[in-house]
Write a structure and sequence with these properties.
Helix content: 10-25%
Number of helices: 3
Radius of gyration: 18 Å
Bound molecules: zinc ion
Order of helices and strands: EEEEHEEEEEHH
Length: about 160
């Protein structure tokens, strides 16, 4: 089945905070809409990556619905691009960008040290002890996320 990419949500964390996912919405051949959640660290992401890169309006083939659903696309569909959009709408740069982004953080306890938080496909990684050995969101990642939320809020206020 073919489908057209109509909308992309910004990436967000799952409730347990462990995976970052992005929800994509497609218009199906019969005009109805169906969504799918994509996790960049999953193997099936390789099929979707070119679609996300191509952006809104991209028409894809190889789409299967999830068993028992009419509005959920199976993320394991081996999709391919049928037609790129006539007018490209590039995605703004964010954590889901294709090049890793690194932010440097001075250590809270020893300002001479610094830690680096790197986002690659929406997955943050930090060089600090807490992240490496406990494998969970450390204070640097949390601080960065907080900062981003505030920036986003400021931008929104600036619009009004
Ligand atoms: Zn850290």
């Amino acid at each position: 089945m073919t489908a057209k990419l109509k909308k992309m949500d910004p990436p967000k964390y799952s409730r347990n905070g462990k995976v970052c996912f992005q929800r994509l919405y497609f218009e199906l051949e019969d005009g109805s809409w169906a969504a799918t959640d994509l996790v960049p660290s999953y193997r099936n992401y390789k099929w979707w990556e070119p679609v996300i890169k191509s952006g809104l309006g991209t028409e894809i083939g190889g789409v299967f619905l999830k068993d028992g659903y009419r509005d959920k696309i199976n993320a394991d569909s081996q999709v391919y691009i049928v037609q790129e959009p006539l007018l490209k709408q590039p995605q703004p740069q964010n954590e889901f960008s294709f090049t890793p982004r690194t932010y440097s953080f001075p250590s809270f306890t020893n300002p001479k040290n610094s830690y680096e938080v790197t986002y690659h496909y929406g997955i943050p990684q930090c060089t600090c002890f807490d992240f490496k050995y406990r494998n969970r969101k450390c204070k640097h990642i949390k601080a960065l996320e907080q900062q981003k939320v505030e920036e986003a809020q400021q931008k929104q206020t600036a619009l009004f």
